[in-house]
Amino acid sequence: MINQSSARALALGIVLYPNLNLLSFTASYEVFSYLPDARVYLLAPTLDPIHSESGIRLFPNTTFAKSPNLDVLFVPGGLGINARLEDTAFLNFLETQGKHARYVTSVCTGSLLLAGAGLLQGYRATTSWSALELLAMFGVETVAERVVIDRNRITGGGVTAAIDLGLALAAKLYGEMVAQEIQLEMEYNPTPPFLGGSSQTANPLVLARVQAQGQPLFEMRRQIIQRIVGM
């Protein structure tokens, strides 16, 4: 569990925003909660409740204005990134914290927000398979992998990669033994019922259906990023 009493507690900040994906937040948070001598800050502009994509209310515990300098910055993904991509104050907060953080991390489309804040230029990074093309629009070298580590940038793929990212970060911070202990305590030993959790392994018919369903959102985001980068 989190030890909040240590004067030298690692400051780990998770940035919350309306309509974030719940699993991309909670899966990593679960891993973070096992880290020794770490304090997790749930950050937002205000302390008002925030609704996830699925409607569950989340409660920030620290405002942007009162955030300490973070050792780890983490940004989850979700439908709500559209509005945040054009939210100057939000992106400025990410940029300010990211410049000095020991590790800058994200999962799923949270990497688009890091890129929008200028924190992924010159780094290799990943995101959800459906958003790799969008991430590349920022000039980022994209990699279709579960977790990509490039120096102090750690980015994860789709939402379930949040656990993998959390464990990779734990290994960086405290060593592989601690990360393996956390993995075992969580009994993270996935055996999915279907071989199709990525665009490379999915049934072609399933892939086509999912791509068609997501095309309007993809196009909306493409236009937003075009405005941002001036393409």
Automatic annotation (TrEMBL):
Top-rank taxon, per record: Bacteria
Name the Pfam families on file: DJ-1_PfpI
Residues of the DJ-1/PfpI domain: 23-170
Q: Which InterPro entries match?
A: Class_I_gatase-like, DJ-1/PfpI, INH-QAR
Q: Where are the transmembrane segments?
A: none
Q: Can you cite a GO biological process for this protein?
A: regulation of DNA-templated transcription
The UniProt entry, under Gene3D superfamilies, shows:
3.40.50.880
**What is the name of this protein?**
Thiamine biosynthesis protein ThiJ
Q: Which organism is it from?
A: Aliterella atlantica CENA595
